[in-house]
Design goal:
Blueprint lengths: L10 H14 L5 H9 L7 H15 L4 H11 L13 E2 L2 E2 L4 H11 L4 H12 L9 H6 L1 H11 L5 H9 L12 H5 L4 H8 L5 H15 L3 H11 L5 H10 L1 H6 L2 H6 L7 E7 L3 E3 L3 E10 L3 E12 L5 E13 L4 E9 L11 E9 L2 E11 L1
Parallel strand pairs: 4-10
Antiparallel strand pairs: 1-2, 3-5, 5-8, 6-7, 6-9, 9-10
Helix pairs in contact: 1-2, 1-4, 2-3, 3-5, 5-6, 6-8, 8-9, 9-12, 12-13, 12-14
């Protein structure tokens, strides 16, 4: 059995951090740090462990943040070009997951004096990531932090450039929601535009994820950005935009689909066949047939409308295929959907529905009964 991920915060890591803090600061109280950081550690989950270690840093140094900040920066590994797999608490200094508690100290205590603390987060992100810790600064000091992020976007260090995009995501998982960017993402667009052709996939993927966040509340805006960015786009930028629009494409957003060359389909003689009764755990054969009225690109997905506890149906889109169809071509598709038990959804017996959408438009639907 794999070791629980929370154990990345363990006594060895904590003792290693203590050694480096003691190395760089005579004001560090090693005993207080170890006692606070290790208290009940086995009973804590991962994020709670990181939070406890961050409070241990507060307890072990004098109360002024400047002293703690200087010690934490001095204790970091001098290398700034490591892959995550290389990072850790080493003889040369601190990097990797140990950086998260240190960044939390900055986020919790540094909002009253943002400029030096944003600079500390820049240093820390080169040894791990400050994407969560920078978010309170975007929330409380949006103009200053965005100005800083625009500068970071031109930094020579890949981790700093990624921080500009990842830290500003409106809906970063596990991070606080940046409500101002949810309502009005326009300040983000110059930042993301400046990073869209970054030489590193690591950064471009973050830009795509930021746009995907924006799309959840501002779909038309992202569809327009996609249309603009795809003009004379390189292969790398095409992949970025496609990943950025993944939610819109699944939802069948007309503007996003048209940006990728999938206008409303022109089909005739459409049919969809599936069993009238499906048993949970069985295979569900699906057959779709349609005639293309013209030369066109077809993006075909199928949609299962699952019964929920309240008796209503909730759709989930499953990717199927792309076809370059010619005028008069009879498109025939068949696949089997494994209707298996999954931990992310509870199935309920009763009337469900199967649909097929082409270029985002529902072109056929059939009912079926699910039995348990």
């Amino acid at each position: 059995m794999a070791e629980p991920f929370k154990n990345i915060y363990n006594p060895t890591l904590i003792e290693g951090m203590a050694g480096h803090f003691a190395r760089v600061s005579s004001e560090f109280d090693r005993a207080v740090f170890l006692k606070t950081a290790l208290a009940g550690l086995d009973d804590l989950e991962m994020l709670a462990r990181a939070e406890q270690i961050s409070h241990a840093i507060d307890a072990a140094f004098p109360p002024d943040l400047a002293t703690k900040r200087a010690a934490m920066v001095a204790a970091m590994d001098p290398r700034t070009d490591m892959e995550l797999s290389e990072m850790g608490v080493r003889d040369t200094g601190i990097s990797g997951w140990a950086g998260e508690p240190m960044a939390r100290v900055i986020a919790r205590n540094g909002l009253d004096d943002p400029e030096p603390n944003l600079e500390a987060l820049r240093e820390m992100t080169m040894r791990f990531s400050s994407e969560f810790a920078v978010r309170p600064f975007f929330r409380d000091h949006p103009e200053l932090t965005m100005k800083t992020a625009l500068r970071w976007a031109k930094d020579e260090n890949v981790h700093v450039r990624r921080l500009a995009s990842e830290g500003s995501r409106p809906l970063l998982p596990w991070g606080i929601k940046l409500q101002a960017f949810v309502k009005d993402p326009s300040p983000l667009i110059p930042l993301l535009t400046g990073l869209r052709d970054d030489p590193e996939e690591y950064v471009r993927r973050s830009v795509a994820n930021n746009l995907n966040d924006i799309a959840k509340h501002q779909p038309d805006l992202v569809a327009e950005i996609a249309k603009d960015w795809l003009k004379d786009a390189s292969k790398d930028r095409q992949r970025l935009v496609k990943h950025a629009c993944r939610t819109l494409i699944k939802q069948g957003h007309p503007g996003a689909l048209e940006a990728f060359g999938f206008p409303p389909p022109q089909l005739g003689d459409v049919s969809l066949n599936a069993p009238e009764v499906v048993k949970l755990g069985d295979q569900m054969p699906i057959a779709f047939r349609a005639t293309s009225k013209t030369d066109q690109k077809l993006l075909v997905d199928y949609v299962l409308h699952f019964m929920r506890a309240n008796g209503k149906l909730s759709p989930k889109v499953f990717k199927w295929t792309e076809i370059a169809a010619t005028a008069g071509q009879v498109v025939e598709l068949a696949k089997t959907h494994p209707y298996k038990v999954v931990t992310t959804r509870k199935d309920y017996a009763g009337a469900q529905k199967l649909g097929v959408q082409v270029n985002g438009q529902t072109v056929a639907e059939v009912p079926f009964e699910l039995t348990l």
